[in-house]
Specification:
single chain; mainly alpha; 0% strand
């Protein structure tokens, strides 16, 4: 107990440690207690931070900052409009078609499963197959009720979307334009000695910046590769499935395994276990293998890779705290924890 007490006294006597601890506590309180209220601002801060890398790149090419901000901001608005009016309608159409075809898929699946008791009576009986199908239909009905409840609340959702569409672009522009003023203002709130916070932020900025840029390009490359493959082989819902595969790279380890299920299910429903299914599945596995063994090492060569145990632990903890968003941001948050642990002052060892 004395050793723990001495450690706390030593850390409490270090003003840099105290300021770092208070900064982390304030950040945690803002996200947890005020996250819903400040969601547009927090989202705008994240997007402005990501776009800042492009602004800095233009500034290095001797482009004035204001012009660089306007150029990057215009490109960002064009990208958002392209998604809203180009990608989302297509995804909505294919998702609607997929949902409408789910009952037919279930019927085909039931016919296949009902043949199992005839061929393999020791594995499954007709009664067990019926019970499985009843459970599947009950689960799908539950999902449908959840979707209905979401649609009934669509008015409030539309209002929220409109607020985001109006407030976020304004916030993003001024956060980018007045970045230096905001940094100076926040610097005035910090004590004179804040090297520890600066060290943590420097490492987090470098690691997360490289990670986010790498993930962005990984999503685009995997998405495009899957879209071309699915379209050339004639798979149904190519855009919907390729977007799911592209976004799955955001969820470490689990994403690739989970998204394989709808791809295989749609291919099986369309072709059965024939040559087309085998060709598509081999092509899909090749894409996944190239992503994991070639694309990821190339894009993330500058990122300090975390141990798989640390990544899985971060997914479990932050996913439990914040759901899907926590899973998406598990690696950046784990990077923050890793940077804090690296920068934390260590007690000098007494000579033996």
């Amino acid at each position: 107990m004395k050793m723990i007490t001495d450690w706390f006294r030593q850390q409490a006597g270090n003003p840099q440690v105290v300021f770092l601890t208070l900064s982390l506590l304030v950040l945690f309180v803002i996200v947890v207690l005020m996250g819903n209220m400040l969601a547009p601002l927090l989202a705008a801060v994240v997007i402005a931070y990501l776009l800042e890398g492009l602004v800095v790149l233009l500034e290095r090419s001797r482009v004035p900052r204001l012009f660089a901000v306007l150029l990057v901001y215009a490109a960002f608005l064009f990208f958002v409009m392209l998604i809203l009016f180009g990608l989302l309608p297509l995804l909505s159409t294919q998702a609607t078609q997929f949902v409408q075809q789910v009952p037919s898929m279930l019927n085909v699946g039931q016919e296949v499963l009902l043949k199992l008791p005839e061929k393999y009576p020791e594995i499954a009986s007709a009664q067990q197959i019926d019970e499985i199908m009843v459970l599947i239909r009950i689960e799908l009905t539950s999902w449908g009720q959840k979707l209905l409840s979401v649609s009934l609340a669509s008015v409030m959702g539309l209002i929220t979307v409109l607020i985001y569409l109006v407030l976020m672009p304004i916030l993003i522009f001024f956060l980018m334009k007045d970045k230096e003023l905001l940094v100076i203002w926040m610097g005035r709130l910090a004590p004179g000695q804040h090297q520890l916070v600066s060290q943590v932020w420097s490492e987090v900025d470098r690691q997360i910046g490289n990670y986010v840029r790498g993930k962005f390009w990984e999503i685009l490359i995997v998405w495009f590769a899957c879209l071309m493959t699915f379209s050339l082989l004639g798979l149904q819902y190519p855009m919907l499935l390729s977007v799911l595969v592209g976004l799955s790279v955001l969820i470490p380890f689990v994403g690739a395994a989970v998204v394989t299920i709808p791809v295989a299910f749609v291919a099986w429903f369309q072709w059965g276990f024939g040559s087309e299914f085998l060709t598509l599945f081999i092509a899909y596995l090749v894409i996944q293998a190239l992503d994991g063994n070639l694309l990821v090492p190339t894009l993330f060569s500058e990122v300090n890779n975390l141990h798989p145990v640390a990544i899985i632990t971060a997914v479990l903890i932050f996913g439990g705290l914040w759901g899907v968003l926590g899973i998406f941001f598990a690696i950046p948050l784990a990077t923050l924890v890793h940077a804090v642990l690296n920068a934390w002052p260590r007690q000098p060892q007494d000579p033996a």
